[in-house]
Design brief:
The chain has 3 domains: about 270 residues, 3-Layer(aba) Sandwich (Rossmann fold); about 130 residues, Isoleucyl-tRNA Synthetase, Domain 1 (Orthogonal Bundle); about 50 residues, no CATH class. About 45% of the residues lie in helices and about 15% in strands. It is built from 16 helices and 15 strands. A 5-stranded parallel beta sheet has the order 5-4-3-10-11, sandwiched between helices. Strands 6-7-8-9 form a 4-stranded antiparallel beta sheet. The chain has a two-stranded antiparallel ribbon with strand order 1-2. Helix 4 crosses helix 6, helix 9 crosses helix 10 and helix 11 packs antiparallel against helix 12. The longest helix is centred in the C-terminal third of the chain and has 24 residues. Bound molecules: zinc ion. Zinc ion binds next to loops.
Length: about 475
């Protein structure tokens, strides 16, 4: 039974879908005006794990993710300009070019980290019509008013505004005022009110639309309400986002959607915590903001980064260090060679008393999934995985695994990898029986050279294997093993 911590109720709840086996899941996507860094990627990896879990349980998931390519203002106070417009000015490119460039970069990174792509990726600029329709409904119901720089949503008119935060309307307003966020926009009534439509200035020509309220562009919060409801319906199962959206963006989404439809918007709100670097916040001045590309250029594999990022519990902060990443790299290699060894074991002779071992393996595998069912407790789930590996290794050392035992472990590992997404199956299909003869001849020749103590020749062959075939050799007790990079 899957239990998830719901930010809306502030407790773990049994997850029950609205429509039997079909689940609607919406993820707040990127604002495409800068190179996404590893801190951004954590949330998308956590969402990926959740989605894989739901699919593993037999649900059919429709996953929708937006790309903000207009409307995200540089300041929470509804002053300042659109982040995309500012980036476009700085880079002397059109907003469309800037958004296209960084959106591609983001999805390339996602692919590299083996994140399953959303079923629907929706761009704000392609849904302005839907947003305007939503605004018309809100306007007709009396939720909008005009202020100096745009149309605003009157949060005092929506009963239960901010319920996601657990704070009262009064308290929220007081807190925002303390943050000196009010008073900057002429005509704005409450600190919690937010722009749903920003008027453009006459010099702004790109990404502006004409409406009955005036020429301008949509507010950032509006797009998520309009697009999620368009693709998933007025009421859907899961909405995810970074913890930084808990105070403003998500309460605003709820207010707009529920005010317009009169229905409950989302059942489960899930928020991923931050990634820290070297124990602190990532910041430009500290020089500790890394992109996926930069990490890989330092020689780490994307799968090590994936493994590290999903290894924590999503509601806790996770601290990134290069030492921790090196450990993850080592861990992933260990997993791969474990799988490869199992592959070899598949052909070993039978032994007796296999039932108990196989039962133990299945129990540990179930334990992995049981821990995930507890609000995605990945650290505990991984502990079950490592126990499974240790159990197998000690069995292997004492009596050697027989074929059916190895198969049971392989099956368990593949099922676990449906969640981890580290590509175990790729390691299994590379069957030793299908080894390229040419490589095997060279490996044998190197062995022969070593026996004759002709180490120059042995080294030469090793280098050639690496260069020509991308093959690395590993000398083990049972002889030399090789694998393609
Ligand atoms: Zn959003």
């Amino acid at each position: 039974m899957l239990k998830l911590y719901n930010s809306l109720t502030r407790r773990k709840q049994v997850f029950r879908p609205i429509h039997d086996k079909k689940i609607g899941m919406y993820t707040c996507g990127i604002t495409a005006y800068y190179s996404p860094h590893i801190g951004n990627m954590r949330k998308y990896l956590e969402d990926d794990v959740l989605k894989r879990m739901l699919v593993h349980k037999g649900f059919s998931v429709t996953h929708v993710e937006n790309v903000t390519d207009v409307g995200h203002l540089a300041s929470d106070a509804d002053t300042g300009d659109d982040k995309l417009r500012l980036a476009a000015e700085k880079e002397h490119r059109s907003m469309k070019d800037v958004a296209g460039f960084y959106t591609k970069m983001f999805f390339d990174d996602c692919k590299m980290l083996n994140i399953i792509p959303p079923d629907i990726v929706c761009k704000a600029t392609e849904h302005v019509h839907d947003m305007i329709k939503l605004l018309e409904v809100l306007d007709s119901k009396g939720y909008l008013y005009k202020a100096e720089n745009g149309m605003y949503f009157d949060t005092s008119k929506f009963k239960g505004y901010g319920k996601l935060t657990g704070l009262s309307f009064k308290r929220l307003n007081a807190e925002l005022k303390e943050g000196a966020r009010i008073g900057k926009v002429e005509g704005k009534r409450h600190a919690t009110d937010f722009a749903v439509w920003r008027f453009s200035t006459p010099d702004q020509k790109e990404m502006v639309w004409d409406t009955r309220w005036g020429r301008g562009f949509p507010g950032w919060h509006l797009e998520c309400s309009a697009m999620s409801m368009k693709y998933l319906g007025n009421h859907f199962d899961i909405h995810t986002g970074g913890i930084d959206h808990l105070q403003i963006h998500h309460p605003n989404e709820i207010a707009q959607s529920e005010a317009a439809t009169g229905e409950k918007f989302v059942n489960f709100w899930l928020h991923s915590n931050f990634l820290t670097v070297d124990g602190g916040k990532m910041s430009k001045s500290m020089g500790n903001i890394y992109t996926v590309q930069q990490v890989i250029e330092k020689g780490y594999s994307p799968m090590a980064l994936r493994m590290f990022m999903i290894s924590g519990q999503y509601r806790q902060t996770l601290n990134f260090t290069f030492d921790a990443l090196s450990n993850a790299e080592f861990g992933v290699k260990r997993l791969y060679s474990f799988i490869e060894r199992l592959q070899e074991n598949r052909n070993k002779a039978r032994n007796v008393d296999t039932k108990e071992f196989r039962k133990k393996v299945r129990e540990l595998k179930s334990g992995f999934f049981r821990e995930l069912d507890d609000d995605i407790n990945m650290p505990e789930a991984l502990a079950r995985l490592y126990a499974l590996i240790n159990e197998t290794n000690s069995r292997s050392e004492s009596t050697k695994l027989n074929r059916s035992e190895a198969r049971t472990v392989i099956k368990a590992m593949l099922e676990i990898d449906q969640i981890l997404g580290l590509g175990f199956s790729g390691r299994i299909t590379a069957k030793p029986a299908k080894l390229d003869k040419e490589i095997q001849v060279l490996v044998d020749e190197r062995e022969e050279a070593r026996r004759k103590k002709d180490f120059d020749r042995a080294d030469e062959i090793r280098a050639m294997l690496k260069e020509r075939y991308q093959v690395t050799l590993e000398d083990t007790k049972e002889g030399v093993r090789w694998r393609k990079e």
